[in-house]
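Our platform keeps sequence and structure together, in a single record for each protein. This encoding replaces a full spatial description with a residue-level series of whole-number codes. We quote a single record here, exactly as it is kept in our systems:
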Amino acid sequence: MRTAKPYSIDYAPAAWRHIGSLSGEEFSGLQRALQRIAEVATAALPAAPPAGLLLEAQVAGLGFRYAVEAEPRVVRLVSLERLARRAARTRAAS
């Protein structure tokens, strides 16, 4: 049985802009979460996940969106924000 090529992790330019503001602990938590997502994607997703698959997750007080791309088998961090800021914007819009 052939083992699937593992998913790697990549960052979209919009996500990179926010990474610089993270503490070391926040960045480590984000890295661990993305690594786990890549491991699960490698083990559980079909060879070609649906195009445009965009998911959301939370870790260490951060909310993030990521895409799972079949080629080149990458989990791409698309956007990142602190959850407290998201909640404040939601309250302000109400």
Notes: The domain at 8-93 is CATH 3.30.2310.20 (YaeB-like fold). The two ends are 54 Å apart (CA to CA). The CA atoms of residues 56 and 65 lie 4 Å apart. The mean pLDDT is 81.
